[in-house]
Design brief:
The complex is a heterodimer of chains A (about 475) and B (about 475). Chain A is α/β, with parallel strands linked by helices. Chain A has helices at about 10-15, 25-35, 50-60, 105-110, 155-160, 175-185, 215-225, 270-285, 300-315, 335-345, 350-360, 370-390, 415-420, 425-430, 460-475; strands at about 45, 70-75, 115-120, 165-170, 185-190, 210-215, 255-260, 290-295, 395-400, 435-440, 445-455. Chain A has one domain: Amidase signature (AS) enzymes (Alpha-Beta Complex), CATH 3.90.1300. In chain A, the strands form 2 sheets. In chain A, strands 4-6-5-10-11-9-7-8 form an 8-stranded mixed β-sheet, with helices on both faces. Chain A has a 3-stranded mixed β-sheet with strand order 1-3-2. The longest helix of chain A is centred in the last third of the chain and has 21 residues, at about 370-390. Chain B has 16 helices and 16 strands. The chains are: A alpha/beta (about 475), B alpha+beta (about 475).
Amino acid sequence: MSDITKQSLSELIKNIKDKKLSSTEVTKAFVERSEKSKELNAYVTEDFSAAIDKAKKFDENPNLDLKLPGIPMAVKDLFCTKNVKTTAGSKILNNFTPTYESTVTQNIWNEGAILLGKLNCDEFAMGSSNETSFFGSVQNPIDKDLVPGGSSGGSSSAVAAQLTPITIGTDTGGSIRQPASFTGIVGLKPTYGSCSRYGIVAFASSLDQAGPMAQNVRDCALLHEVISSYDEKDSTSIDFKRNNYFKELTNNIKGKKIGIPKEYRVDGMPKEIEDLWKKGIDYVKDCGAEIIDISLPHTNYALPTYYIVAPAEASSNLARYDGVKYGFRADGENLIDMYEKTRSEGFGAEVQRRIMIGTYVLSSGYYDAYYLKAQKVRKLIKNDFDEAYKKVDAILTPSTPSSAFKIGEKTNDPVSMYLNDIFTVPVNLAGLPGISIPAGHDAKGYPLGLQIIGKAFDEQNLLNIAYAMEEKINFKNKITDWWIK
Amino acid sequence: MSKDKSEYLINRKDNQYEVVIGLEVHAQVTSESKLFSTSSTKFGAEPNTQVSLVDAALPGMLPVINEYCVKQAIKTGIGLKAKINKRSVFDRKNYFYADLPQGYQISQFKDPIVGEGKVILDMPDGQKEVGIERLHLEQDAGKSIHDLDPKNTFVDLNRSGVALMEIVSKPDLRSPDEVNAYVKKLRSIMRYLGTCDGNMQEGSLRADVNVSVRKKGSKEFGTRCEIKNVNSIKFMQMAIEYEANRQVDLIEDGQSIDQETRLFDTKKNETRSMRSKEDAHDYRYFPDPDLLPLEVSEDFIEKLKLEIPELPDEKKKRFIEKFKLSPYEATILVSDNETSNYFENVIKKSDVKLATNWIIGELFAALNEKNLEITQSPISAGNLSKLINLIKDGTISGKIAKTVFEHMMEGDKDPKKIVEEKGLKQESDPKALEALIDKVIDDNREKATEFKSGKVKLFGFFVGQVMKVSAGKANPQLVNEILKKKL
């Protein structure tokens, strides 16, 4: 079988279960393609030979009842992996190897998957283009010098370029959905509390969620089923009844009510995004669902709210990287000097910017005006969704205000970079699930995504709507393998 | 007014100053494991052997609240007659230090688990009520060790994450003596409850002491200084004494007092400025997003109330009413649970009055001398009870009992056996005593004549001689009676 890496996850699983392919063959195929794709810079750490060894071991005594039998998989370098270096895209963790495994990755290995390596990402997941990584920018396989989105840019690039059949990312303000949209793949941010945060390098604790990224909705549903679990080690994990998302997946969404929020028609939105949205509405109607206009009146305040709450939490979460216990340490004259040098040299500019913003908004005299007010607005944003969900089952919006941009295009303009998250951050602030599915191309042939936002814990419905739409859209990613010589 | 007699005032020329003190006591919660991790809290382990991934703040590690510590805090709140808050919030207190791995301490800032309560102090001139402002749960930091290496500081994280209760009093204390009584009472309540062992040597109980002064009669509070981390009652008293006088001197000198944090130097017996208000940390408190607000139900609290033992105030009342003890005796005997248990065990089978005297007198003095706690007493309650019965039934005199007691302190021996082995049994046979007394009178004829001619004082001499000859074993009452007859 020549085109192993072109197969979807479901096909690979079927072939392994039917003994048409061994885990070793599959793993070797992805390793080979990954090795030929170094120019994409998708990997921070390759664990290829260990992966092949594990695959061989799997084949010696294959357990084909598992959900991911012998499936190789690379994961975002924000997930702590036992005995495999975990950097969070930062110099400050460049020498850090955990002795423990994140719950989400453990769930994956428990179902028979095999770690290929760790994927590049924005430093501490702070970024929308993967350009803030200490390990350099990642290429979008769609076109040369195009960003793959961020922060899960290594993940989106790797799935789109078929270096891994599937992957997981994390999403704090859009870090799964925006890169999925930029690379023509599917990315799901689950309900806050659905996937454990244990062992994931924290960015903003009240917003961070792990989620699956895949070539199609079915694969996405399967991986979500694997990673979503209640975990006592995460106090914000929620013990609700989880579906068999893959098995229960259906394209029958007749009679579902889909809301279209007028506030998402932002000023200066490119016409092709507007057109894509309209097309999306038509697809939804084609599926037999009903379109209802809704209002989410506080949408405008979501981005500023996010850029107070997320940096505030980050400024505190990143205090532990001080050079004392692990990670990078710069020499200093005394403790304070060591702190200052370690953190000045260890953190990149964007991380430092956010630590400073966060420190400012939490400081005495500003706390009420910024952090406290932002928390109140956050509540209003959530109330908006609660109101809307009295009328609709899900909400349809564009995933991003534009297609992927060139590397370097926005690096000197943080605000325009932040605007990338305008459609995705309200979802994190409200703790809701959201999925981005590829829905078309812009004039340059770059993929564009549509976002479906669901009710809390209603991932099944969300996946069903995405599945039905996917069938109608029939999207084909245009990947030319331009980076392979 | 009796109150004025014990009032603690600082006098300067024509002015009298009152001292206003508030305490923030940090009490280590008695628990097997830490507040947010499963590592052990045992004292005295090798450095860094009781440190989990959470305690060392490794990436991606998350705190999970220890329910037992929550129960302990609520029980303490109940013991302080305080309001239990059904909803409380854990906040992050952000600051950098080498022994603070997370870069923040998880504490409770705006919404503590326990609200206002009170503690009753038994002062020599009566009872005094001290208000409790709040009690909150927080993590302890690790320990920086600066004296093991000339250049480097070592960090021991064994204590990192251990649960502390910070108990904040209202500024109701007015003297070092009241502080002494307050800390002891607080410790006693927590020991009764089993929520804090109160061991100050091991750092289980320490306090930040807020001190201000004002002219007597003034209603306004003066500017306060906070003396950080004082770890013995004696040092607290010394620090207050020094600090109050320092403040008074400044005021008398026409200067103002800076609100600041000070350290108490135990060697020099003085407080020194640590940082001024301007240099105070901005801790950037905010609710810890890794933890949900802590919510406890009425039912949860009610169940804990059932686990609360009889506390010192109630026990004292019972001792006074049931055993007719004086308030002074009762206060001493209920000061800790172990002492009151000991007392109640002794009086199960012996005289209350004698038991009270022997415990408060001989036993406490002997234990004190050997630096032992009541739980380490070489004399069990049962054996003390037997000793008291030997006195009561006249087998031995009170004086002999002291000798027996001394032997008992050397090891927990049955007093009856000691009396037998050493032949200390009291001589109460009138005939034997008569013979003894006859001999004494015979040997001291001159004095006997003097006595008869009116020198009554000599009676004591004869008693002494009889006791001496009998090696203390003669029954003093009978000796008196017989002597009177014979002389």
